[in-house]
Amino acid sequence: AEAVRAALGSLDRVAQDAVDDPMVRRELVRAYQRAGDVLGNPTNANLGDLPGADSVYRRAAQLAEPLRSSRDGNVRWLMASLDQARADVAAPSGRLEEAATLQANAV
Fold first, then answer.
1. What are phi and psi of 10, to 5 degrees?
2. Which three-class secondary structure state does DSSP give residue 63?
3. I need a labelling partner for 75 at 20 to 30 A (CA). Which of 28, 31, 97, 102 fits?
4. What is the pLDDT of residues 65-94, one digit of tens each?
5. pTM for this one?
6. Is the dihedral of CA 62, 1, 52, 80 positive or negative?
7. φ/ψ (deg, to 5) at 41
8. What is the DSSP letter of 78?
9. Measured distance CA(31)–CA(59) in Å, rounded
10. Alpha-carbon span 46 to 102, nearest angstrom
């Protein structure tokens, strides 16, 4: 978990400086999502930190928001994948309505 947290610190620093570039933003979203997967996404092998994964996915979603209007297929897939990952964490956390909404967005 320490290695993932160190990587998140690096991502946070890059995110502060490079958010004006849509391609960098997209890669940061992807990296945050992967970190969330490793921390606690219950659909993958993970470190068992469900709240940590939820927090990281929320950061990814905030960073991704300006990309949501993109018509690029790769960006749309990334947004759907992130919504599904967030649903994967919301459901076992008891936030079933949120999970259902996120899953609907992912389709």
1. -65, -45
2. helix
3. 97
4. 999 888 999 999 999 999 999 999 999 999
5. 0.90
6. positive
7. -70, 120
8. H
9. 11
10. 21
